[in-house]
Amino acid sequence: MNYLIYSYLFFFLYGTALTGDIWMVNTGSARFLSDAPLERIEAETKMVKGALKLSDRTFAFSIENQTFNGFNSPLQQEHFFENYIETHKFPASTFVGQIIEQVDLSKPGEYDVRAKGKLNIHGVSKERIIKVRVISDGQKMNAQSVFSVLLDEHGIGIPKIVQQKISSEIQVWVNLEFLPKE
């Protein structure tokens, strides 16, 4: 999976890019919340990688699943890695696609856009349209999004014994800062 995302980034984005056309994630974070009746599970990673090609508004993002931390306990983290996201089989989650709106994000301003693409979690790709708030000052961009992920859509099963502890719908927050690729 990592090979595919990096191949996409290299050949597609760099192969046809104009100077200033590619913006790379400088810093980024993704956080998720499972708010079930008996337990609240939160974790975060600050290891989001990705790029945005302004000329055609295409993007590719990747998160190494093993980088999530902040669970309630080491055992909870172990169960997440081994039993649910199965990082040994699915080391990364990705989102690859295009911004729908015809906007020039390099110009200063605030933009509400929709990112349409394939969200791949746990080895299962689903077509998604995700709302994103972008703030650009012309030198850097910040993109923020909040959306939900249904576990069963990505083949992540919840055993009956823990259904009161793990929500079937996970809330996700993403915050990315982009800088132009020099």
What is the overall number of helices? 2
Output the CATH homologous superfamily.
Lipid/polyisoprenoid-binding, YceI-like
Please indicate the count of domains: 1
Q: In order across it, which strands form the biggest sheet?
A: 1-3-4-5-6-7-8-9
Rounded mean pLDDT score: 90
Estimated structural class: mainly beta
How big a fraction of the residues is strand?
over 45%
Q: How far apart are the termini?
A: 26 Å
Could you tell me the CATH topology label.
Lipocalin
Radius of gyration computed on alpha carbons: 17 Å
Order of helices and strands: HEEEEHEEEEE
Please tell me the CATH architecture by its name.
Answer: Beta Barrel
Low-confidence spans: none
The rough form would be described as elongated
State the major sheet. Answer: 8 strands, antiparallel, barrel
Count of distinct strands: 9
Classify the helix fraction into a percent range.
10-25%
What is the CATH first-level class name? Mainly Beta
Structure report:
The protein is mainly β and 182 residues long. It has one domain: Beta Barrel (Lipocalin), CATH 2.40.128. The chain is built from two helices and nine strands, in the order αββββαβββββ. Strands 1-3-4-5-6-7-8-9 form an eight-stranded antiparallel barrel. The model has no long low-confidence stretch (mean pLDDT 90).
